[in-house]
Amino acid sequence: MRSELQSVAGSIPSSCLLRIFRAAQASAAGGAEVVKLHVGDPYFDPAGAVAGAFVDAVRRGDTKYTGVEGLPALREALVDKLRTDNGIDSAVSRLLITPGSCQGLAALLQSLAEPGAEILLPELHWPVHLQQSLLAGFRPVLYPLGPGFRPDLERIEAAATPDTRVLLINSPANPTGVVLTPGEITALLALARRRGWQVISDEAYEHFCYEREHVSVASFERDLPVGERIVHSVFTFSKSFAMTGYRLGYVALADDRTADVMKVVQEANIIGTSTPVQHAGIAAVAGRSDAAAANRKLVQRNRDVALPPLIQAGLLRELPAGGWYAMVDVTRSGLDAEEFALRLLERKGVAVVPGNGFAMRPDVDERGRIRSHDYAPWARHLVRVAFCVDPGWLETGVLKLIEFVDECAGGAR
Ligand SMILES: Cc1ncc(COP(=O)(O)O)c(C=O)c1O
Are 55 and 192 members of one domain? Predict the structure, then answer.
């Protein structure tokens, strides 16, 4: 008889994102019209030149393996982009192309993990950050956020232990939409430096800041010698250039040693990133300024037009300062977020993600497996709405959500 699966992976419950994704798919397959506000997939497309470069590469047979670190031309273009747009001093030797930033994050975490090491994540986080940390062998330590879901230095310090090795920063944040100020970034970096931690900066939503310019965490250490730098930055083509299905990202490592380690990890994981997709990436970087500005405008218009009714209905405190998501407070419905999301899908055909999916608190055993888990209680009143979707859908979905809260509050459950 086969013994029960004891792997770390086997101990990780499937995320609420996946559950709602499946429920929405089942509704749609059953013929129901579903307003999809649960996934961060944009309603707009990449520039024509991006598809053209992909097709051209395929047609001319440029479809062999590239090196594990990616095409030199793409890496050079990205080093230039990081210098001029992000203020980051990278180098081709320290920049790796990855099949999506999700895979880049996973490989980076595998490169940094050491037995018993802890990683600091915010209590309200993108579930993939938690899953990947566990899979890489980190013990996740979740620190409570301050008012407005902002990081609070004292709480982070209090959560840290002598085993802490990495602090993960995600600004603009998924799911909260919080954009860190330069002052907050400086303080977080100073803390990490003082405590000997490395920093992972996930900047997937770098082009979606609506109140102020995006500031890259690694820009604060561009004048330091490479050997003293601690920030590894992760970027994606998915959001800025609407290339979610192409699967293309990149990681700018703080130092050459970590870059070399990650090359070994990537050789084992992927061998390389799709060659035609990297050619599409070269076209995207060349046309980046226009594309990113146009895409930001589309999402900002969605935010400014469709989300204010949520504020008027008392379900949202303020418009998100960045990213693609709003955390909506459905306490007034009297329903737990998970039940709310399922009923909203059933009754109104609108898919949103329950907040507890972003606030799992695992109890991890000595071998890195989840023994048990619960959810931060305050997240049971939140649902996440993605506002990167078709404006008509978004407006309809938001109005139906408000209507549903009102019906529940009025006792018409
Ligand atoms: C915070 C954050 N980081 C990274 C990603 C990964 O994007 P991709 O793997 O498409 O590059 C996402 C996707 O939603 C995200 O929300």
Answer: yes
